[in-house]
Design brief:
The protein is α+β, with helices and mostly antiparallel strands. It is 18% helix and 39% strand. The protein folds into 2 domains: 79 residues, Elongation Factor Tu (Ef-tu), domain 3 (Beta Barrel); 80 residues, Elongation Factor Tu (Ef-tu), domain 3 (Beta Barrel). The protein has 3 helices and 12 strands. A hairpin with a 2-residue loop joins strand 1 and strand 2. Pfam families: Lum_binding. Pathway: Cofactor biosynthesis; riboflavin biosynthesis; riboflavin from 2-hydroxy-3-oxobutyl phosphate and 5-amino-6-(D-ribitylamino)uracil: step 2/2.
């Protein structure tokens, strides 16, 4: 479980490429190393990965086929930088919102508007079906960052980034056309899916009742 408050960035220093499988070795920030052990969970651009090896500040993580398919991690090259967050502990301050580290898709950066103290980024979701989870003033995870959703138009939505977010994360370096990892707020997803199931059940019951009232020939 994560909070969406990025704790630092880590450089990808080596990649071991295999069919439908990758091992990433990153240089973790020194302040995130204490207590880090094999099997620990670390968010990379919002994706929950498991520590598989530790050699000083060089930490290894395995990426399986599903991770490579759903996230942007498989497209990273040596030297790339990722947002990282250690797993939350009970009693920690939740400054963002609870996140699982399960990426649902990637979204394309469609527009960027920059002003003196703010940056607005518009993102295009790959499927209109996913937009039912994107609600005005709701939460969303972008590259592991907990953000509040601004305007929502068709299959696009925007977020506003303050200078602190631009400075501490990789979003300040993103450009038009870049793909970013998206995690839907799990509570929003649960509510939307539950309402859909209830409504579908009611419609089916009403249809069955109406059919029962039709005189049989």
């Amino acid at each position: 479980m994560f909070t969406g408050i990025v704790q630092g960035t880590a450089r990808l220093v080596a990649i071991d490429e295999k069919p439908n499988f990758r091992t990433h070795i990153v240089e973790m920030p020194d302040e995130l190393l204490p207590g880090l052990a094999l099997g620990a969970s670390v968010s990379h651009n919002g994706c929950c990965l498991t520590v598989t090896a530790i050699e000083g500040n060089r930490v290894s993580f395995d990426l399986v086929k599903e991770t490579l398919r759903l996230t942007n991690l498989g497209a990273l090259a040596q030297g790339a930088v990722v947002n990282v967050e250690r797993a939350a502990k009970f009693g920690d301050e939740i400054g963002g919102h609870l996140m699982s580290g399960h990426i649902i898709c990637t979204a394309e950066i469609a527009k960027i508007y920059t002003s003196e103290n703010n940056r607005q980024i518009w993102l295009r979701m790959p499927s209109a079906d996913l937009m039912k989870y994107v609600l005005h003033k709701g939460f969303i995870g972008i590259e592991g960052i907990s953000l509040t959703i601004g305007e929502v138009v068709n299959n696009r939505f925007c977020v506003h980034l303050i200078p602190e977010t631009l400075e501490r994360t990789t979003l300040g370096k993103k450009r038009l056309g870049d793909k970013v990892n998206i995690e839907i707020d799990p509570q929003t997803q649960a509510v939307v899916d539950t309402v859909e199931r209830v409504m579908a059940s009611r419609e089916a019951a009403m249809a069955a009742a109406a059919e029962a009232l039709v005189p049989k020939a």
